[in-house]
């Protein structure tokens, strides 16, 4: 391929990769340099999921119901879509900046895992209990991630 540089010495070009090649890293070369180019498959997302804002605070040993909605980008709720979830508890960290220095060993534990199905309008609920860490002080609470 022949290209012509502009007044700054740069150029642009386009080309089509041959069909049948696997995704991966390819190299583009000219007389001066070699540059790696990553080729990956892109799939446009068909839907998104939003969770309702939490209105209340919760305490350990309390049952929680997280509500959300799965919706297509055209604005239609996804009817009877499968929702898989996992809730992970990690310990309370009073000084998060010290965590990177390994002063505290913060353990994580999966406390809930499951599936549910969206309703006709795309809404769903994920129920789980805020189970405390038996080895931790109750007043330290915990951090829960869905």
Itemize the secondary structure elements and their pairings.
Elements lengths: L23 E6 L4 E6 L7 E5 L11 E10 L9 E9 L5 H4 L8 E10 L5 E7 L13 E3 L1
Antiparallel strand pairs: 1-2, 3-4, 4-7, 5-6, 5-8
In short:
Helix content is 3%, strand content 38%.
Task: Give a verbal description of the structure.
The chain has one helix spanning 96-99, and strands at 24-29, 34-39, 47-51, 63-72, 82-90, 108-117, 123-129, 143-145. The chain is mostly beta strands. It has a domain at 47-145: Immunoglobulin-like, CATH 2.60.40. A 3-stranded antiparallel sheet has the order 3-4-7, with no helix packed on it. The model has no long low-confidence stretch (mean pLDDT 85).
**Helicity range of the residues?**
under 10%
Total strand count, please? 8
Radius of gyration: 25 Å
**N-C termini distance:** 51 Å
Supply the helix-strand structural class: mainly beta
What would the CATH topology of the domain at 47-145 be? Immunoglobulin-like
Highest-level CATH class of the domain at 47-145: Mainly Beta
Properties at a glance:
single chain, Immunoglobulin-like, 3-stranded antiparallel β-sheet, 1 helix, 146 residues, mainly beta
